[in-house]
Amino acid sequence: RKSVTFSRAPECPCRAIAMEALLLPWDRFSAWLHCICVVGFDLELGQAVEVSQRDPPGTKTSICYLSFPDSNSGCLGDTQFCFRFRQGSNRKSSLGCFLETTDRDAPPCLKREQGHYYGYVYFRQVRDKSLKRGYFQKSLVLISKLPYVTFFHSLLKIMAPEYFEKQEPCLEAACNDIDRWPTPHPGRILTLPIMGVVIKVSIVLPTIHEVDLFRCFYPVFFHIQMLWELVLLGEALVVMAPSPAESSDTVLALVSCISPLRYCSDFRPYFTIHDSEFKEYTTRTQAPPSVILGVTNPFFAKTLQHWPHIIRIGDMKQAGEMAKQMKVKKLKNLKTLDSKPGKYFILLIILSCEVPHKTAAHSRTQIYGVQQKRPSPAQNAILRRYFLELTQSFIIPLERYVASLMPLQKSISPWKSPPQLRPFIQQDFMKTLEKAGPQLTSRLKGDWIGLYRNFLKSPNFDGWFRNRRREMTQKLEALHLEALCEEVRRDGKRERV
């Protein structure tokens, strides 16, 4: 047996292990995956689900189209990418309470999705003269609520080649292997046998979910400050790429660049015209929604030309006439940021009828340690640390102010209800920035006040503050319960005396 090790972590408490003893058959499978699908191409029906261990969530049509690269992508060989789609209904899992317990200790970026599913795709397209179409085209798709991008892509590299060679019996064996896995509880070293390979993984370290930031951002290196701000503010952003692999990696890199802050708006690593939200996201009757879309179909170049921010990656082959019309019609309104070609040539275009986005930090981006000759993993680590420090510098003043809204512990009495948190007052917070703003920990200079003012209107602030308020309320309730217990203990002592 081969062994693939992702990371190490201390063992989990015995309580979680005891809970797993109560799980029924296929509960462990459901803790990792909703289902496994095989999507093939039929000459009459087009893309169709050929095999599925359980009915896929959402609409099968949408999943089928999301599981195949766009016809213009020309992805020969093996391609891996991921997509994300709405749950569609409030179906409750029989594992609900158990999964909430196992999910509680996970960092924000690793918590399972509540209203969306991920689809992890391994697509194979090879020439086959025995088929009428002349090509073998099929996708193996893992659908899950877990955002473990790197892990599931690594799992597919083991499963997919075996499946394409041995077909369904091989897939059934894989499902049985997964149903014997321990549940994905943070803090444990998990041993996961699959098709003769043993994967060791820990659900706490970044190797399970992170994409290569340096590879994705290298061609627009001097504009990453602006990209960070656009994501932080939840701006409408579309990534136009030549393949779903490049679009999904870039969207996931954008979402993760504000970590440890969780991106609270919608994002679609790969989006098609067949998505149920297509009309909602492309309408011109209202402003573009707070969402990041990854697309490959050239049709979106025209459909989304009114969006304020567009990243164009590589050569999206546009239809001739439409391309000519776009160049003539929009040339005057484009602000183009060119960069030297890297692994991918990226042309960043900011579309705006007024003034393009101005970064809060006007100084030129400098990331110490990033050099041409360093190995890619080292470059990636340096860039991720830069984003982490930037986000932490921004969020620390907010954390400090929100902590001041907590009532003093002496105000907690067993004879009264738990005290309430004081309200968040924007003007009071802004006053704290003069002496305790991000300038204390960040070298960047600029309009931080304007950035905070816009951030406080964004879904990312709303999601962050709701989570912090919930945590602080739970802390107050725990302190109140502790005060009650202490009073009962004192009463017991007095009675014995």
Characterize the structure shown.
With 497 residues, the chain is an alpha/beta fold. It folds into 3 domains: 2-208, Longin module (Beta-Lactamase, 2-Layer Sandwich); 213-351, Rossmann fold; 402-488, no CATH class. 38% of the residues lie in helices and 18% in strands. It contains 16 helices and 14 strands. It has a 6-stranded mixed β-sheet, with helices on one face. Helix 10 links the parallel strand 10 (266-268) and strand 11. The longest helix is centred in the C-terminal third of the chain and has 38 residues, at 459-496. The radius of gyration is 25 Å and the shape is globular. It starts with a strand and ends with a helix. Mean pLDDT is 80; it is low at 1-12 and 316-356.
List the helices and strands and how they pair.
Elements: E1 2-5, H1 14-20, H2 27-32, E2 35-42, E3 46-52, H3 60-66, E4 77-86, H4 96-103, E5 116-127, E6 135-144, H5 149-166, H6 168-178, E7 189-194, E8 197-202, H7 213-217, H8 224-232, E9 237-240, H9 244-256, E10 266-268, H10 278-282, E11 291-295, H11 299-303, E12 309-313, H12 320-330, E13 334-337, E14 346-351, H13 376-403, H14 426-436, H15 448-455, H16 459-496
